[in-house]
Amino acid sequence: MPHSEIRELCERVDAARLMAHVTEFARRIKLSGTPEELESFAYLRAQLDALGFATDLILHDAYISLPREARLTVLGRAMTCITHSFSQPSAAGGTRGTVVYVGNGTDADFANRDVRGRIALVEGIANPAASLRASRAGVIGQIHVSPHEHIHEMCISPVWGSPSHETRADLPRAVVLSVSQADGHAIRDALARGETVDAVLEANVDTGWRKTPILVAEMASASAAADEPFVLFSGHHDTWHYGVMDNGTANATMLEVARICASSRAGWQRGLRLCFWSGHSHGRYSGSSWYVDENWDELDRRCVAHVNVDSTGGRGATVLEDAQSAAELRALAREAIGERAGQTLTGRRMSRAGDQSFWGVGLPAMFMSLSEQSAATATNVAGPVMGGGAPRKGGGLGWWWHTPADLIDKIDPELLARDTRVYVHTLTRLLQDRVLPLEYADHAADFLAELSNLQQKLGDRFDLTPIVERTRTLQSGAAKLRTMGDAAGVNAALMALSRALVPIEYTTGDRFGHDPALGQSSCPPLDPVRALASAPPDSDEARFLTVAARRSRNRVCHALDQANAILARLQSAAPAQTERSSAQGTARARVESLAT
């Protein structure tokens, strides 16, 4: 698509219209499954109905945890505190115990320490990884110390989505509170002086099954064929407090992108589906994970990519270089951010956060939080969510993130319009490009770099050559993909490649489940190989890990074989046959013909 046409669409972004939506979203606190949230969903639906989208408001069961009042009594006084989503509620009269300092709550901090029946004092924002370690270590309570004077609401469940009968045992088993940095360090300093510090933790947490909404809004292309592919554009609507930035501005961005893209529908090559989730904040992505589970087959055969949006237009959010993207969508992300914000993408992979519930299906994903405050001026309290990696220019989402101060005065209309233009550019390309802008040669290049680094650490202890050779074949084939057939055939091949490669890159390998809400390496199936590289040579541990490493190598080789077979079949097919079969078949048939 000519960039002049994309630029013209981006110039239609209306800051006043965006702020009118934001003003509406600022009227209500939108806790998951509450009447106020449902009222706000009605506004979304009315806006999209008026734009000509077909809308469906779904109510489904989700396991939701709403933190209520909390109290901490320690060092002879009551400290200001909050409790968290999926904390255990305290018993009548509070949970009493002796406080023990565990640093950042890492595996090393809990190693070889008997903290059973104690209350752990943990540095940093409350998070699921620390809560899981503390629960397994047998603590009865946790006190998290904020990195500054503000205390941030958090969901501490490590279970992605509503728990099943198998994963419910991983829910937090302790009473969890958070305090300011000054109060937390007062407790820490008393412990450092050798004092015995006892505390009473009181928490009221409302956890249980409740009906929560999902709004689905869909528009087909002007020449919609049966079962045509579509782009998924999603963001959550539930909030902590009024949540004007998180996620009111993102919802305004979604409405404005929908308006502008709908005006150019005549040029669409595929459809657009918007999803607004509940349960992001209070159910650990219960809405998006339910939607995947309920619509797995349709997503598998029809969805080409997932674009997520969160917390656009925050005051001082001048950094877009750290925006996240899958490698195969990085070129598109780099173009959109470069042309609409004048910044150069650093190329960070997607982190295990947000409503990224679609990797098992095999959907390539881009973006989550797009713009951040500068690391030079901000405390990155959102680091556990935004993902690490050096160098980072961004410093998170503002001190008001997940606090009652997330109000309309924290929004910069010009920055909101800039972020929205990035999304208009991105969605326009995904909707209108005859050949999908997915670059699996870039995916292969990233993987080859990871394999090279890992092989250097392994030395001659374990051979990754079978994976390396297959990845080089993938890189070579993917680089020539656009010369192998007509647009329909190439698009079908790109979707089939996604189904083979994305689950290996972003999950442990189960396409139908959801991995925990914990940090992950690239290509998680190779984690036993990484562990082998660090194990003492010739030890029993190394031998045990070698068994797992062989199986990991087989799993990854199998996925690469599937991907390379897709490319080989496309290359061997005559263009006329590809065109004839693609015209006669559904999207599912085209993808399956290449994938099997």
In words, what does this structure look like?
By secondary structure, the protein is an alpha/beta fold. It is built from 19 helices and 12 strands. It has helices at 3-10, 15-25, 35-50, 107-110, 128-137, 181-192, 244-263, 286-294, 296-302, 330-341, 383-386, 413-432, 440-458, 465-479, 487-506, 527-534, 540-572, 575-584, 587-595; strands spanning 54-74, 77-79, 82-83, 95-101, 119-123, 141-145, 175-179, 198-219, 230-236, 271-277, 303-308, 365-366. Strands 1, 2, 3, 4, 5, 6, 7, 8, 9, 10, 11 and 12 form a 12-stranded mixed sheet that branches. β1 (54-74) and β2 form a beta hairpin. The longest helix has 33 residues, at 540-572. It is globular, with a radius of gyration of 24 Å. Mean pLDDT is 94; it is low at 576-585.
Structural class: alpha/beta
**What is the oligomeric state here?**
single chain
The major pleated sheet works out as:
12 strands, mixed
**Mass-distribution shape:** globular
Summarize the amount of helix as a percent range.
40-55%
Ranges with pLDDT <50 over ≥5 residues? 576-585
First CA to last CA: what distance? Answer: 32 Å
> What is the total tally of β strands?
12
Chain-averaged pLDDT: 94
Summarize the structure.
Strands 1, 2, 3, 4, 5, 6, 7, 8, 9, 10, 11 and 12 form a twelve-stranded mixed sheet that branches. Helices cover 41% and strands 15% of the residues. It contains 19 helices and twelve strands.
Summarize the SSE layout with pairings.
Blueprint: H1 3-10, H2 15-25, H3 35-50, E1 54-74, E2 77-79, E3 82-83, E4 95-101, H4 107-110, E5 119-123, H5 128-137, E6 141-145, E7 175-179, H6 181-192, E8 198-219, E9 230-236, H7 244-263, E10 271-277, H8 286-294, H9 296-302, E11 303-308, H10 330-341, E12 365-366, H11 383-386, H12 413-432, H13 440-458, H14 465-479, H15 487-506, H16 527-534, H17 540-572, H18 575-584, H19 587-595
Parallel strand pairs: 4-5, 5-6, 6-7, 9-10, 9-11, 11-12
Antiparallel strand pairs: 1-2, 1-8, 3-7, 4-8, 8-10
